[in-house]
Write a structure and sequence with these properties.
homodimer, alpha+beta, Nucleoside Triphosphate Pyrophosphohydrolase, six-stranded mixed beta sheet, 8 helices, Znr_NADH_PPase (chains A, B), NAD(+) diphosphatase (chains A, B), NADH pyrophosphatase activity (chains A, B), NAD-cap_RNA_hydrolase_NudC (chains A, B)
Chain lengths: 309, 309
């Protein structure tokens, strides 16, 4: 699936080797991926596709953060190391000026046009860097945090903090498991699609929601479908998963069976309906008479629907 | 699976209804589950099983936290509301004195003896309450946090904090997706089991590790198996999942295929070997000649191995 299909070797054992990381950081063969929150620096490869701007140490040496913040080692690919850095908007603009064709674009929908391996680099980087930005202070004692292990670990600067006495999950990157489910009628003829208020006009998608403490994937799917559209799901089967960089969800794609009248939760959803297979095919192909559509092929919702139709 | 098999209705829409929550909190029909970090208050139901001590509002009114901290609404079961509270050790001891047969025990291995529906209540409670305790300060600005929505949401007390401008994941309970994989030889005759240094002597289990930003379940499984035992996995199939309350992992159980010589990562693992099906059956039944064994039936590793043997 898109956003999780990397050929990079993460080399997690080397993250703690400060000398090795330092050496690779300053190596001019090393590649840097640049971003600012929801913006990325890209070069168009053709009319439809984009690649991330490829810069080396010499080009961005003077902009690099001194304290390991806003900075992460992504891994190695064909013996080339790849790092990502979060830079100020003005700095990005300055770098872009030096590269013909380069431009800064908004990551959504921009990242959907990245080549698949580049999309994975982007999702890895945004997941790590947004976690770092959200963890400037220790959530247990309120003191400043320190980033370690090439961006992958966070410790509290207060040595008396209880976090130093044991591993706490807040020290490691956060990934939010989320179920997304195609709900299919027992005769396989219809599926439930719903609209969140923040969706673009006309877009409908599968039912989704965060996994809570104490739940399995399957139990979460049953709860979310019941809460959002009032249907009791009979069985749930996992199909595949995808990381979704908004900023760090692990989307767990499922198929489930249910039938009956919908009772849509109007606090969360704007609309929810049963759609026939023919309608969904039209929505997937962009030829629905009412102008309705489903998420693009890069989204796991599209993959789930494709498996069903 | 154990720890995720609840019959409780979480009633997530009612969490924001302060009046309803207040009313149910003080209702003497409401049940409270009591704990202190890694300790729980239980009553033996028979020689082998435990249930959580069942107390009502009257019994613990004076101990309840005033600021919604250390406190969570778990849901409704047969029209009875269930809350969980984290109390000081001395308070737990005081309450236990009032109840014949009740006692405070360490949750591990104690919680493994709970009835399955009670184990789910425990895992839901510990996941929520340990998250709350780890989030006393805003990780973005360092100011104190405020708990809302019956324990499920956290906001920053500093109204100028950027977290008030948009949803941030730190505001919601953290669940860490973790893969656990049985690695099987292509002829189905052998599986890989490994020992972490913290395991009880003689215990071997499947390969496990946290999902990182940018990974799918399947990609994480490939990476973890390669990192820990040096084998390249050919295919990965998801089997089932379970929440594991240590304190809040979503264990995603997979089967994967690989073969060859192991190269065990000695920094993370104490030992790792191929075991035959016969050996694994002996380890599951507690009759292995060398005294080796696998995790108990409550652990997903056991379920994965059972599916294979």
């Amino acid at each position: 699936n898109f956003f999780s299909n990397s050929t990079i070797q993460r080399q997690s054992k080397l993250r703690t080797d400060e000398n090795w990381i330092q050496e690779k950081m300053t190596d001019n063969k090393t590649r840097y991926v640049l971003m600012n929150r929801n913006e990325i620096v890209v070069i168009p490869t053709n009319k439809r596709h984009l690649t991330l701007l490829n810069v080396n140490y010499e080009m961005i040496e003077k902009y690099l953060p001194a304290n390991n913040r806003n900075f992460v080692f992504l891994g190695e690919q064909d013996k080339q190391c790849i790092f990502a850095v979060h830079l100020e908007k003005l700095v990005l603009a300055e770098i872009v000026k030096l590269h013909q064709e380069a431009r800064v674009i908004h990551a959504f929908p921009g990242a959907l046009k990245l080549r698949q391996d580049e999309a994975s680099l982007y999702s890895h980087a945004v997941g790590m860097l947004s976690w770092q930005r959200s963890q400037r202070f220790c959530s247990v004692c309120g003191n400043a945090t320190v980033i370690k292990d090439a961006g992958y670990k966070l410790t509290c600067s207060n040595h008396k903090c209880s976090t130093h006495k044991g591993a706490v999950s807040a020290s490691y990157p956060r990934v939010d498991p989320t179920i997304i489910s195609a709900v299919i009628s027992p005769d396989q003829s219809r599926t439930v699609l719903a609209r969140q208020p923040r969706f673009p006009p006309g877009m409908f998608s599968c039912i989704a929601g965060f996994v809570e403490p104490g739940e399995s994937v399957e139990a979460c799917c049953v709860r979310e479908v019941e809460e959002e559209v009032g249907l009791r799901v009979h069985d749930v089967s996992y199909l595949s998963s995808q990381f979704w960089p908004m900023p760090a969800s692990l989307m767990l794609g499922c198929l489930a069976t249910a039938d009956g009248e919908l009772s849509v939760d109007s606090a969360e959803l704007e609309d929810g309906r049963w759609f026939t297979r023919e309608e969904v095919v039209d929505m997937m192909c962009g030829r629905h008479a009412g102008g309705l559509f489903v998420p693009p092929v890069q989204a796991i919702a599209h993959q789930l629907l494709q498996t069903w139709v």
